[in-house]
Write a structure and sequence with these properties.
Elements lengths: L1 H16 L4 E8 L4 E3 L4 E7 L4 E12 L6 E9 L5 E9 L10 E3 L2 E14 L3 E9 L5 E3 L1 E10 L2
Amino acid sequence: MKNLLYFLILSILLLSSCRPGRIYQEYHKFDNYTWNRFDKIKFEIPIEEAGTSGDIVMTIRHITQYPYSNLPVNIILNTPGGEERILEKDIRIRDYDGKFRGSGAGDLWDLEEILWPSFYFNETGIYSIELENLIPKVGLAGLIDIGIYVEKTE
């Protein structure tokens, strides 16, 4: 009976972790839960098939002690052909009632923000995304990690 229970739990975990539409996923973990103001985070998305569309999504994992209601970031996307797209985004961490957005478990919170919905990857190669923290303090405390993933939309 125990073996059956372990098998069921393992099966559920494996099936829930599979994401057949996810073509890229990477996370950057912060030392001491702090994002230094001048540390830019870079992600490199390898695209092997031109003509693919996907949502480019930023994930933020933070603790309850995150001190602000928002996270202003500058986002630069560079294509393999040299095109540059710049997006300045003010991501709401808390809603207007002061409650954290996203899903929480204890002191941990996860939030997802779509940066570019149905982005069309028209060429193969490396697409890079660079994130810059725009909070005017040297160290932004309360962040565990930030990630980027691409979910295929076709």
